[in-house]
Amino acid sequence: MRSISQRELRNDNAAVVREVEAGESFVVTRRGVPVARLVPWTAEADLTLDRPARRRGAFADRARVRLAESTDEVLDDLRGDR
Fold it and tell me: How many CB atoms lie within 10 A of CB 26?
């Protein structure tokens, strides 16, 4: 199993994925510390779900903030005498 850095994976993503597709396996490191293993997909792979994802509230659910002053007034005040 070859070792590659996170930067190498990011910069050569297509080449690395082609090698994985051809059967090669990689250990991905960050600052020399192993953080992930990249291996070819197999139908027998156990991909059980340990913890389901939680959906967070969308921004549309949040109350809109209204200011007493207009944005133009705030920006004019911030810019001062430029």
Answer: 18
Model pLDDT, residue 46: 67
The residue assigned the tokens 């994976």 is 9
Closest CA to 9 of 27, 33, 22: 27
Q: What contacts 49, CB < 8 A, 6 or more positions away?
A: none
Supply the pTM of this predicted model: 0.53
Predicted pLDDT at 48: 73
HEC readout, the chain: CEEEEHHHHHHCHHHHHHHHHCCCCEEEEECCEEEEEECCCCCCCCCCCCCCCCCCCCHHHCCCCCCCCCHHHHHHHHHCCC
d(CA 62, CA 81): 36
